[in-house]
Amino acid sequence: MIKALVVDDSALMRALIGDILNKDPGITVVGEAADPFEAREAIKALKPDVLTLDIEMPKMNGLTFLKNLMRLHPLPVVMVSTLTQHGADVTLEALELGAVDYVPKPSGGATAALVAYGELLREKVKVAAGANLQQRQALPSHPAFGVNPRKLEAILIGASTGGTEAVKRVLCQWPALMPPILVVQHIRPFFSSAFTRHLNSLTPLDVQELTKDTPIKPGQVWVAPGDRHMRLVRRSGALWAQAFDDEPVGRHRPAVDVLFSSAAETGCGRMLAMLLTGMGKDGAEGMVKLAAGGATNWVQDQASSVVWGMPRAAWEAGAASGQYSLDQLAAKALKLLAS
């Protein structure tokens, strides 16, 4: 049984989240707290397995509390944040500090929407409770050898739970001139723009959210927009990235399988695909197709994954030639591209 603690300054929100979580027979809400000081005492007394945590609270904001928590008493945390610009930026900061995942605050509306929200929240909490909490480490340095971006037509990256930090850690170790990079991260629409801006501010690469048909070029990173798929097509020999609306694949939009499968159809012998941390099996089927087309496929290893679901599915399907930590993935890609 997963023991959950709900931390939110709104009594109404605490009651709503508690009621949603208690509907799952595998979860019991052992307590609630209206501010971080109450939460600190509740953690000591109740020993929860996972927390849901609001960001804006009295006495101490959620980020300060989270930072202290992960330093002194690490616990899996699911952030519950507002769908605003500020909410998206702060949520990404919370993921940097060690939160496992996030959900937006429920906005009311139809019963069907609240039911779907409840299913999402319960799923996130259950996954977080079993997550591998990562120790934050400084980025390693790599030998300064030359990189030939023309050795690969594209690098494809797929990720889900824990992926915002995993993708960031890989990209931050690469120089400005790399082959075109395409990223599919399971993320909500409002948060994908904040995620893209954040990556662009941290890496020497040109990171943009894909909004229209675009020819891909070295030095560029294209991130799939939230709630839209991304695919590769070949036009007159050149590769183009497309964002498009279609039904979710395996409940995901964007879906990694859509990108990987489309890349396999373009002729993928000079492509590198990486499948990083995430729940479920999205990307495994597409990676099998990439392997059949001659692509180089790697997955993140279990020890460094927050959730070893998607990488495991691809590995067990025989679609990848190796499994590595994030730092090893970044370094191996540079060696592959060494001129």
From TrEMBL:
User: Which terms does the record give in the GO molecular function aspect?
Assistant: phosphorelay response regulator activity; protein-glutamate methylesterase activity; protein-glutamine glutaminase activity
Query: What is the enzyme's class at the highest EC level?
Result: hydrolase
For this entry, the protein name equals Protein-glutamate methylesterase/protein-glutamine glutaminase
Entry's PANTHER family?
PROTEIN-GLUTAMATE METHYLESTERASE/PROTEIN-GLUTAMINE GLUTAMINASE (PTHR42872), PROTEIN-GLUTAMATE METHYLESTERASE_PROTEIN-GLUTAMINE GLUTAMINASE (PTHR42872:SF6)
Write down the chemical reaction(s) this protein catalyses. Answer: [protein]-L-glutamate 5-O-methyl ester + H2O = L-glutamyl-[protein] + methanol + H(+); L-glutaminyl-[protein] + H2O = L-glutamyl-[protein] + NH4(+)
The record's EC number reads 3.1.1.61, 3.5.1.44
So what family is this one in?
A: Belongs to the CheB family.
- NCBIfam families, per database record: PRK00742.1
Query: Where 4-aspartylphosphate occurs along the chain?
Result: D54
From which organism does this entry originate?
Answer: Gallaecimonas xiamenensis 3-C-1
User: Major place of localization?
Assistant: cytoplasm
Q: Name the gene that codes for it.
A: cheB
